[in-house]
Amino acid sequence: MARIERIDLAMVDLAPKVERQDAIQSFVTQETPIVTITDSDGAQGTGYSYTIGTGGSSVMRLLADHLCPRIIGRDPTELEAIWHELEFLTHATTIGAITSIALAAIDTALWDLRCRKAGLPLWRMAGGARRSAPCYTTEGGWLHLPVEAIVEDALAAKAQGFTGSKVKIGRPVLAEDVARIAALREAVGDGYEIMTDANQGFSRDTARRRAAALAPFGLAWIEEPLPADDIAGHVALSQASDIPVAVGESLYSIRHFAEYAARDACGIVQVDAGRIGGITPWLKVAHMAEGFDIPVCPHFLMELHVSLVCAVQNGRYVEYIPQLDEITHTGLTIENGMAIAPESPGIGIDWNWDAIRARAVPEFNRSVRRSDT
After folding, report:
1. CATH 3.20.20.120 in the chain, residue ranges
2. Residue 369: what pLDDT?
3. Cα dihedral sign for 215, 218, 224, 230?
4. What pLDDT does residue 103 have?
5. Average pLDDT over the chain, rounded to whole?
6. Gap between the Cα atoms of 215 and 211, Å rounded
7. CATH assignment of 123-350, given 3.40.50.300, 3.20.20.120, 1.20.210.10, 3.40.50.150?
């Protein structure tokens, strides 16, 4: 029986390809923790997660000082046991982003190792529901962009076969949001999906007014209209509006998703493997959502989420935001607007290790070995 022999840690800072601004923040840099697990057979698996500019150093210290030493010598096939043990180990800081981001990097590495040793791609290993999934783009819909740029980007995406575009909302005046969405709908027509995202920027009264004003435009959803912990507010908005409410990128526990679903507080689940703690809890959330007939449209991480969306029956969309191009050899494959799940064994990410080594922040490079514990 193979055991975990070594865990190598690195963190890479990646600058966004375009300026990214929403209603509450700017996406400054993508701190990308990378975990590579080697077992006693010599097999390896690599996982990762991300921040949007803060907290990366804390994630790396949590990995190096607490989580990775705990699993040296463990059977790497015991994914469920390892995940729960690490969650309990960090119960004093759970539930929160730092812990979840660290857990995600380990868990995705274990899944990559498991799939590679089985000779299967992640989407088949985790369920195998379909080979591809529709793709929508967010990269051209940031809040600071003029309406002309948003329209131009959406028309280009539509011509490439994309199924929809997501536009950030939360301009200072309601009429500004309405004018932007109206212009976009007129340009793309009724057969193209428009998603909107408020990034938790509204109060309850503002969310109700914005949703009512945007209802005539046939939106696919309104995302994070309220603070993520305001479940009662999401219940009220879901009851008052015909626009599906989407939540998930700022939820860090399967129990949070369960309460949202049970209380009819959302119509779209956007569970993020990098923020829920990895693939293991991601699949739990997706299967639970299926029980409530709620589709899953995960947030960000398209290179990983394409396989997870294709693994489950209720996976609906993959979000297109380029993330890993500078540290991978090949990116997400898109054909006629459909994201194609990789067939290569593992999580399907073709890492460029020369680029990773060149970009890695030296102070976070670390190897945890069996002889060290």
Report:
1. 123-350
2. 93
3. positive
4. 98
5. 95
6. 6
7. 3.20.20.120
Checking if the pLDDT of 232 tops 70, the result is yes
Higher model confidence: residue 205 or residue 370? 205
pLDDT in tens, 166-184: 999 999 999 999 999 999 9
Given this model, what pLDDT does residue 15 score? 84
pLDDT higher than threshold 80 for residue 94: no
- What is the share, in percent, of the chain residues with pLDDT greater than 70? 99
Average pLDDT value for residue range 291-300: 98
Pick the CATH number of 4-119+352-372 from 3.30.390.10, 3.90.1150.10, 3.40.50.2300, 3.40.50.300: 3.30.390.10
Structural contact between residues 59 and 50, judged by C-beta atoms closer than 8 angstroms:
no
Q: Whose CA is closest to 168, among 148, 144, 152, 149?
A: 144
Q: What is the pLDDT of residues 1-51, one digit of tens each?
A: 899 999 999 999 998 877 777 766 777 789 999 999 999 999 999 999 999
Predicted local distance difference test score (pLDDT) of residue 24: 67
Q: How many other C-beta atoms are found inside a 10 Å radius of the C-beta of residue 292? A: 16
Known catalytic residues?
168, 299
Task: Determine the longest span between alpha carbons in the chain, in angstroms.
Answer: 64
- Distance (Å, rounded) from C-alpha 94 to C-alpha 232? 22
Write the single-letter amino acid at 110. L
Question: Strands 4-14 and 366-369: what pairing?
Answer: antiparallel
Q: Where in the chain is the domain with CATH 3.30.390.10?
A: 4-119+352-372
